[in-house]
Amino acid sequence: MTTIERLWEDFELPIKDALHYADGRSYDLALDSGAPSGFLVLSPFELDEMLEDDPSWVSSVDGLAAVDLGGKGLLWGGEGSYGSEGFIARLTADRALIWAMFFTESNPFDRIQLSGNVATFSSTSGFEIAVDIDDPRTPAPPER
């Protein structure tokens, strides 16, 4: 079991703008309202190394919006421990993590719109994050 899977079992994510896959890959992210997807994928990093310095640097997450994908799982968005934090995730049908994104300054995500494979997650402060639910590293522009 990877570090991110262990954290997810307790509904925790690292306090860092990042994309995490269940297989252990992690990438830095940056919110960017000028980007068609609302964010940029930056360089990969080692989650274990990050948490080695401070293992408690995690936030509890709680869902505020969900879209059931049937046998393909669930999309989930919500909040972290602090008011400014938000997360989005795709889970398996049995609620195991496939991937998750965490943002420290997005505010909670409370709305999800799905069009084909593109999901647009909207936060309480107006941020919109659009992703291809099968490959979030390849951001999809919002459907308007």
Q: How would you describe this protein?
A:
- The protein is mostly beta strands and 144 residues long.
- It has one domain (3-132).
- Helices cover 10% and strands 47% of the residues.
- It is built from two helices and twelve strands, in the order αββββαββββββββ.
- The protein has helices at 3-9, 47-53; strands at residues 12-14, 18-21, 26-31, 39-45, 58-60, 62-68, 74-79, 86-91, 97-103, 109-115, 118-123, 128-132.
- The strands form three sheets. Strands 4-3-2-9-8-7-6 form a seven-stranded antiparallel sheet. It has a three-stranded antiparallel sheet with strand order 10-11-12, with no helix packed on it. Strands 1-5 form a two-stranded antiparallel sheet.
- A hairpin with a 6-residue loop joins strand 7 (74-79) and strand 8.
- The longest helix has 7 residues, at 3-9.
- The model has no long low-confidence stretch (mean pLDDT 94).
Summarize the structure.
The chain has 144 residues and is mainly β.
Largest beta sheet: strand ordering: 4-3-2-9-8-7-6
Mean pLDDT: 94
Summarize the biggest pleated sheet: 7 strands, antiparallel
Terminal Cα separation, in Å? 39 Å
